[in-house]
Amino acid sequence: MSKYKYQIENSVAMSARFARLLQQSDFENKEILNKVKDEKCHIYMICSRPRITFNPSNLKIEKDFVSGSFIVDKGEIKEEHFFKVPNPPNLAITSFEMEYPYSNINFLNNKGEIVSGGKAALLYPRLQKEYNSCLDLEVLYIGQAFGEEGERLATDRLASHSTLQKIYLDILTSCPNKDVWIILWQFEPYLISMMGSGFENALIDLDGSIDHFNSVLSSSITFDQQITFTEAALIRYFEPVYNKEYKTSFPSQSHSSYDQCYKLDINSVAFELDTIELITRLYSPVIAPSFWHTKHYPLYSEDIRKDMFKHFQK
């Protein structure tokens, strides 16, 4: 029966602190690009979901209300979802402008000024009363961008990304009813430590465990290695169709790209993320749709070292 190595076991977890949902066309918008550069996102997900557009034939602007419907393209089935919302006095919408394929709209006041609008797919969850599964995003690919000094961002990588172009081509050919979306992620690390009842029979005594704990506190895994094991853990978790590496090989001591985790001799690594603010759930062929995703991965097999999180499992 395996034992804990230390009476104080540690795990480094990466928590998603910020996420931005966009499409490749947004990379041509200087205002968006400037925001993205300040956000320092190094992890990205390429996803897809049914295309959502406006139905131009029944959009109505009244003094007190704006009403109409969205078309959710599910291939052979086209669903129509209606909405009716107040026309805010501070906006005083009087008209709109929209062109085929009706995926974007501008709302105008009586001076012809744009006072609101945007993409149908992003306005949809704000104009509907309940969440709809058509907003769920399937994770198709996960990647990272990180230069020698952390200067390379996800947008730099995506600007000329062969896998992204292949996904666009495949969807255009096989699933023309779907849109491709990109999520940019910013992650930050935190340390999880456990001790107490159940850990006292560890291989290393308390003094040695305290020395190791102090060593973990005074050391740090470089940010590029943090990003790499986060990318690897996410790929292992979602098993996206277009990823090849890490699906079955993470974690492994043979991967030098996150070897500091093993040099620090921590017990495991983990990630956590949520997409509540994006108003979308993530899923893949192996993971059910959810707003919340978290997973830890022991760095050692159970026969070598006990998983610290099993302390809470029956």
Give a description of the structure.
With 314 residues, this protein is an alpha+beta fold. It has a domain at 51-129. The protein has seven helices and 14 strands. The strands form two sheets. Strands 1, 2, 3, 4, 5, 9, 10, 11, 12, 13 and 14 form an eleven-stranded mixed β-sheet that branches. Strand 12 (282-284) and strand 13 (287-290) form a beta hairpin. The chain is elongated and about 75 Å long.
Note the topology.
Blueprint: E1 9-22, H1 30-39, E2 43-54, E3 60-61, E4 65-74, E5 77-86, E6 95-97, E7 104-108, E8 114-119, H2 120-127, E9 137-144, H3 154-158, H4 162-174, E10 178-194, H5 206-218, H6 223-238, H7 260-263, E11 268-274, E12 282-284, E13 287-290, E14 292-298
Parallel strand pairs: 1-11, 9-12
Antiparallel strand pairs: 1-10, 2-4, 2-9, 2-10, 3-4, 4-5, 6-7, 7-8, 11-14, 12-13
Number of strands: 14
Binned strand content: 25-35%
Class from secondary-structure proportions:
alpha+beta
Estimate the mean pLDDT confidence.
91
Largest sheet: 11 strands, mixed
Spatial gap, N to C terminus: 16 Å
Core attributes:
314 residues, eleven-stranded mixed β-sheet, 7 helices, 14 strands, 22% helix
Task: Describe what is shown at a glance.
The protein contains seven helices and 14 strands. By secondary structure, it is α+β, with helices and mostly antiparallel strands. The model has no long low-confidence stretch (mean pLDDT 91).
